[in-house]
Structure formats: C-alpha cells, structure tokens
Amino acid sequence: MNPNIFLIVIDTLRWDYSDPIWDVLKKWGFRSYDRVVASAPWTLPSHASMFTGLYPSLHGGHETLAGDVYPIRKSVRRRLITKILGDLGYKCYGFTANALITPAFGFNYFDHLREKIYSIDPLPIFSEDLKYLKMVKEDGIKKYIKLTFKYRKTRLASKIMLRYMLRKTHLHSLYSVITRKHVDKGAKHLIRDVEGRLKSNIKPLFVFINFMEVHEPYSIYELLKPGYSIKYLMEKGRGDPKIISYWRRGYRRQVLEITRRIRELMERIDEENYIDNSLIIITSDHGQLLGEYGGLINHIAFLYDELIRIPLFIKYPEEIEAKEIDDDTRWLSNIKIYDIILSVIKSMRHNKIFNISKIYMPKVYSESFGIHTMPIRRCRSEEECKFLRYNKRRVAVYYKQYKLVYDLDTARVEEYKDYNGLGISEERIEELIRYVKNHAKLIMLTGRIRIGK
Q1: Measuring CA to CA, which of 50, 245, 390, 404 is 20 to 30 A from 339?
Q2: Between vectors from CA 69 to CA 67 and to CA 74, what angle results, nearest 5°?
Q3: Could you tell me if 264 and 327 lie in one domain?
Q4: What is this structure's pTM?
Q5: Under a CB-based contact definition with an 8 Å cutoff, are residues 354 and 343 in contact?
Q6: Is the same domain home to 213 and 96?
Q7: 194 and 74 belong to one structural domain
Q8: SS3 of 181, please?
Q9: Which stretches of 289-383 are assigned E, i.e. beta strand?
Q10: How does DSSP classify residue 65?
Q11: Are 96 and 210 in contact (CB under 8 A)?
C-alpha cells in the first residue's frame, strides 16, 4: 500500500529559528535532521530542486545576472515529483501562497492547485494571467489592446490600471495594514482548503503546501513605505537600521504565527486519520538575512548559512522502520527530498526499512546566479545601486566539517569555515576549490549559464 505524502514548505524559515516548530512536532513522532542545505538561496530554484531532484544549474529554474528569472526547463518537467507520483496512482494536490510555485514557472501535473497567493495588493495577479502578461511583454505595448480583446483579458487590463493607481496613492498599503496582511499571509485559508480535500478521503494522495507567513514584510512600517526596504538595500548596499530592527522582531513573531498554524494543520491531518499511513515532510526553501554581515537583509544572491541551512522534520509511516543517521560528517541537500519520497514508497512495497544515511552525501552544493529581484533591472551602475557589486554567480560546497563559497565570475574564494572551529589549511581550501570547479562543469553544460574566467 502506498503511503500518503505531505510536503510542507515554510517559506523563508531559517534553521536556527525553527525550534518552536520542532517542539510542536515532537508530539506526532517527527524526527529532526541536521546538516541540511538548500540548493539555492531563494524560492523558485530551491522548490524546483525538491520537485526534480536536480540542482538549479540542471533544472534551469533560476535567476541570471541580468535579473531575468527562468521557469523549470521543459525537458526536465516529466521528472517532476508530481508526474512520477501521478503515474504511480497518486492524486496530487497543491496549496500555494507563493506565485512562483505555479504552472507558470513549470510546476505542472497537479490534479488540483489552489492558489491563495500572498500579496500586499488588494488586486493580486495570479498565475493564469502570467502567460498573457509575458506575451504582452514580448509583442510590445502596441499590441496590448489587440491581445487584451483576443484573450478576453479585459478584467486583467482593468486590474493592472487599478493597481497602478493604488500604488501611486499608497492606498494598497492602507488596505494591507487594515487586513493585517503583514501577519496572516494565507495560512488560515490554505489549511481550511487542505482540510476540505482530506475529507474527500481520496488515497493515496500527495499534498504540497507552501506557507508564506515567515516571508517579509514584517511590519506596518514597511507597508506604509511600499518597497522601501528593498529599494534602500539596492541603493545603499545595506539595510536601514530601523528596517533591520523591525525585521528581527517581526521575523520572530511570524515564526510563532506559523508554529500555531502548523499545529492547527497537524491536528486536522490527525483528525482525518492520515497520520499513521503518511510520510510528512516539513522543511523550508531558504532562510533570511536579518542584518548580519554588516546590515544585509532579505534573501538575495548570497550563500551564507543564514540563507541556505534549512530545517527538516520528517514523520514516517507507521509501517516503516526508519534508521537513524550513522555518519555525522555527511550532508543532506534538499534535492534529496525527491529521493526520500520515492525511497519511502519503495520501502513500503518491499522490506519496510528506510535508511536516510544512504541519502546523505559526502558533499553538497548550493548555487546562486545573480540577484533575482526586479529592482536590479532598473539599476544602471554601481554608483546608482551599490548592491550591484554583490551581483555575482556563486557556488558553495559543504564537505565533512568544512564549507567554502566561490565566486565563479572572479575566481575568488568569498568564504570558508571549519564547523569544528579548528581552522582550515591551504591544502583543504584548494581541495574544496577543486570540488567547486568540478561542479561548475555541470553549469557550463547548460544553455543559460556561463561562468567567468
């Protein structure tokens, strides 16, 4: 019998802030795993890695130095976990508060996808509109009216104009303050929708959920100054001290908010009798900088531990004997969540034993190919936007107790550390650089990525 599978992603949750959630999950027999690394420091490439089992340089869903963002390559979409599970007889349901985790960016093969997209705007644009907007961009504004009538998108056209007027008057921020959209970012509605789907008693099922509660913004102050934190960061290269203070307090508050929602979700899953025969994975896609490293905020471009070390909590089906990790020098990339799901299904069919140590790896990588936020497209020089100096292509490698971050464009080591605190030799640094360069060969094979000299 195939287990039911729940993949729950708490967007932007740092590993070192996840203890309140772990305290809640112990009740249901979860296990907590350490030394887990995200394949990228932001949403799209990290989720795509979980759904394909590939690094961003291979699945193609990532950013570029020019500020472009690509969806998952069509050539790899048939290996999406939703496709594989669908072929195994699963019904696949998605519940997402993030506009990036939609078919517009390559996340296909859901039998049902519920979008409760988090937006501080009262008139958000959903994924069904993105394809049309892309055609408008490619064909030029002269064809705007023609395309509007051709695709019967008059409501979308009206929405775009209203959004523009609301932003100019800051009324959309007042709407966000009144509705407290800086606190509740869709979890309440998503949990209600998940509960409704569970009551249908369709098995086996795969349920994917993305929660945005821990994602910025964190304060009314930010909402009253739309885009202020990112705009300031791009122009000055560092976060404003007042924003950093708000972010730190707000981040802790939002962790407690999503902890309450996770408890509520688990109670619903338990009440509908899905606990015993389900694989439940709760993790994050990336972390968040909260003023570290001289005032950096957000999750842009860098490969610091605060961005790519993520929590991982797993509840195994009762029929599975899950062995503990027997090697504390190995690492787990979130690309292996794909293998965990398929291996547990296989174990349920055969020997009923699952050993996650076989999925941990001697070394893992994380990749960043530039700044993915839209403000970079309006930056013409480093004088205008000081943050441009951070717009680099980077690869991080974790090996044994060591970590190294390498700038592919300048062939320079940006960071290295020994987690045992014993220091790191020149020979070890050279070894780690060789690992990165070998990994970079994969990057050179892709059509969208080129490394520097």
Answers
A1: 404
A2: 155
A3: yes
A4: 0.86
A5: yes
A6: yes
A7: yes
A8: coil
A9: 289-290, 297-298, 312-315, 321-323, 332-333, 353-355, 363-368
A10: T
A11: yes
The structural domain count of the chain equals 2
What single letter denotes the amino acid at residue 315?
Answer: K
Q: Rounded distance, CA 366 to CA 334, Å? A: 10
Q: Using CA atoms, how far apart are residues 49 and 272, in angstroms rounded to an integer?
A: 30
Amino acid 439: pLDDT: 92
Question: How much is the CA Rg of the chain, to the nearest whole Å?
Answer: 22
Q: How many C-beta atoms surround the C-beta of residue 179 within 10 A?
A: 12
**C-alpha dist (Å) from residue 440 to 103, 368, 402:** 29, 12, 19
Q: Check whether residue 191 and residue 305 sit in a common domain.
A: yes
- Considering 358, 375, 393, which residue would you say is the last residue of a domain? 358
pLDDT of residue 324: 82
Question: Does residue 113 sit in the same domain as residue 127?
Answer: no
Full domain range(s) for residue 148: 121-180
Q: Is 123 helix (H, G, I), strand (E, B) or coil?
A: coil
Residues 26 and 157 in one domain: no
- Provide the β-strand partners of residue 91: 205
The predicted pLDDT at position 171 comes to: 52
Residue that is written with structure tokens 């619903």 in the block: 268
Position 376 scores a pLDDT of 56
Q: What does the pLDDT read at residue 65? A: 85
- Residue 15 one-letter amino acid: W
Contact of 51 with 335, CB cutoff 8 Å: no
Q: What are the angstrom distances between the C-alpha of 323 and each of 32, 137, 280, 359? A: 13, 52, 16, 12
pLDDT given for residue 123 in this prediction: 44
Looking at residue 26, its pLDDT comes to 97
